[in-house]
Amino acid sequence: MVKKNPRGLFERPPGSGVWWINYYVDGKQRREKVGTITAAKSLYQKRKTDDREGRKLPTLRNTRFVTIGELIDDALIYTQDHKSKRDYIVKAGIIKKDLGELSAANFKPNDLSKWLRERTKTAATSNRYKAFFSLIYRVGNENEKVDVNPAKKVRPRKEANGRMRYFSHAEYQKLLGVIRKRFPEHEAEFVVSVMSGMRLAEQYTTTWGQVNWERREIQLRDTKNGSDRKVHLNDDAIAALLTLKRPKQRPTDLVFPRATDLGGKSRFDNRSWFNPCLQEAGIERLVWHTNRHTFCSWLAEKGASANEIMHSAGHKTLAVSARYTHLNPKHVQSVVDRISMAAITEHAPKPEHAPLHAPAE
Q1: Cα 231 to Cα 220: distance, rounded to the nearest angstrom
Q2: Taking Cα atoms as reference points, which of 178, 186, 188, 183 lies closest to residue 281?
Q3: How confident is the model at residue 358, as a pLDDT?
Q4: For 314-352, how does the pLDDT look when each residue is reduced to its tens digit (9 = 90+)?
Q5: pLDDT confidence tier of residue 55, bands split at 50, 70 and 90
Q6: In sequence order, which residues have a C-beta less than 8 Å from that of residue 186 and are 6 or more positions away?
Q7: Is 147 exposed, middle or buried (0-12, 13-18, 19+ CB in 10 A)?
Q8: Can 68-153 and 169-332 be said to share one CATH topology?
Q9: What are phi and psi of 268, to 5 degrees?
Q10: What's the CATH superfamily of 169-332?
Q11: Which of 29, 55, 81, 326 has CA 20 to 30 A from 227's CA?
């Protein structure tokens, strides 16, 4: 038999030991968080007595119990047109499963820190979830459902600047061969991803109207950084795109059409074919975003500067692009050699009246 709560009291979350009181004044529901069940019983009786005797009750700013799950639902509506919507939906599902029923107002920075430590393996993943929590609460603030944001007081974890994993040229050729054999219809999207460096959401929202064949570029709109940018296409990317051209294509048609799920919604899902190909090729610790790292890394290996990588990849800051510049030690060495005395002497201007021949002894 389920034990009933005392009249006018309820425990939220269940089993937490935190008790609330629930009562009505002039037909309007009022809820207050109290603490122990004993204190809650006492305050409930006091509120009922004060109301009965006409005493003024305290003004409650927000009496409705708002859960973290409700804030997440609002945040997903807010970001429904965002290019990273897919990523948000995945994070939202994980958080709601663990924390969805908890009080949003009572979720403290320490609670968030503990959850991040237990549920994330790397600093990068922890920081991405922290950012999503901040978004959830920021939307909640705008909707006047909460006036706190626990993510603000949680320090981001320092991300390692170790070796960036990317495809070697041999790995690229091997994986490309497997894709051609098993999923030839997806070859073009893999080649374009590596050879253009586009982010996943950028690539799979590109329409034919954004492709300029004459200028050999794709005009991206409203990117992750909030600005438009041009993606320049090399011969490999152009050749791959040409294999996708079909008669009577409209400018609004997607270059890489999405699959349709059972609910009739379009989605892009490259894991179903990309991951099996990685496994068959014997390539480990790589994901689709590795294609973008490969693009930047190969540019660096060919001597591209951090500034050139930044503009080619659409990075927001030079610091992000600078992570790749160590990959070409020969290029760095050539820069250092420019200030050697031998180089300075070699390129020094000749005197205007230098003798044509050495003077006779």
Answers
A1: 7
A2: 178
A3: 46
A4: 988 888 888 887 777 776 667 677 677 766 666 556 555
A5: confident
A6: 179, 270, 273, 274
A7: exposed
A8: no
A9: -110, 125
A10: Intergrase catalytic core (1.10.443.10)
A11: 326
pLDDT at site 182? 96
Statement: residue 355 has pLDDT above 50: no
- pLDDT of 299 reads 93
In this structure, which topology does domain 68-153 adopt according to CATH?
DNA polymerase; domain 1 (1.10.150)
- pTM of the full predicted structure? 0.60
Cα 319–271–136 angle (5° rounding)? Answer: 60
Q: Among the listed ranges 28-42, 84-98, 152-166, 232-246, which one has the minimum average pLDDT value?
A: 152-166
CB neighbours of 43 closer than 8 A, spacing ≥ 6? Answer: 21, 32, 34
Rg (CA), the chain: 30
pLDDT value for 76: 92
Q: What is the rounded (10 degree) CA torsion for 272, 274, 279, 283?
A: -150
What does the alpha-carbon distance between residue 351 and residue 349 come to, in Å, rounded to a whole number? 7
To the nearest whole percent, how much of the chain has pLDDT over 90?
48
Among all chains, which residue has been given the structure tokens 């009922």? 48
pLDDT at 302 over 70: yes
Q: Which tokens is 173 given?
A: 């050729």
Sign of CA dihedral 290, 293, 294, 295: positive
* Bond preceding residue 13 cis, omega within 30 of 0: yes
pLDDT-based confidence at residue 64 (cuts at 50, 70, 90): low
